Fold this protein.
Amino acid sequence: MPRALTISRFLHSAKWHSERNKGLQPLVKSFKNRFGIATRPAWLMNNTDPIEALRLNYIEYFRLFHGQHGIRTHVDQETAWIVANGPPGNHILRSKLPAASAEDKIDALISRISALTGGIRWLIFPQDRPRDLRARLTQRGLSTGRGDLWMFRQLQQIPDDRHHPQLCISSVQDMPGLRAWWTASAQGFGTTQRAAQPWYDAFRRRGFGPKTNVTNFIGHLDRKAVTTATLILAHSMAGIYDLSTVPDYRGQGLASALVTHLLQQARERGYSHAGLQTGDAEQLYQSLGFETGFQEEEFFWAADDPEEKR
């Protein structure tokens, strides 16, 4: 099933990192290729701006959940993180710490996180600091892993052969539409509506209308909602999230048609670049003109088990 994060990110991380790292070997080649001229898009060469723009977009996505279901988010110039103890997961998304005080700030951050949860994934990005942050985290016993691919494309040329003649795509503009999106999205990700409740509440609170920068989209076949996604326009990046298709309707090009529609919407709103994260649909997005520019580098912090100390 093609998936743009992050509902799938939470579902995949629920088994914690020991299970997540299984099956990552096929992505190793892609990770190595991102350093090669032949496989990395020219507009990403020696330029981390698209990655940073998508990270800021990603942070905006998670800020939608703040204050609901006990979810805490924190964003300042040095750090950004979310603790949910459930969906949509626990993540540290920015670490820009001064080298002179990095040791104290890392320990303070871990102490603050430990008061809220028992574990979190810590993402490292090209612009994070200090430069030896990886070594400092390793010294503290954090384990490492490779996560999802971050893929990008420019919006000057959008494929015109990915439309589906029977698929009717519309944006969510009211509560009945959001309930239809919520139901179909949960089905597409193989979870329950109860588990997907934080997404429903986040988007309900955000509201609807042409001025919002967060829009949910639904594709209908014969009036049945069968494919869903979310578009966030922020920080010079069109971010695509939560792409899913109801199981009985997969393999018909519906997700491709929906992504193409989102790209067109972003271009009409004046955006020149789109980005997304994926763990299992690289080929789909490549067929839509996306190219891999980054692969998540993850560190995992977990609280000490009191039983192990006895």
Summary: Residues 14-40 have pLDDT under 50 and may be disordered. The longest strand covers residues 143-154.
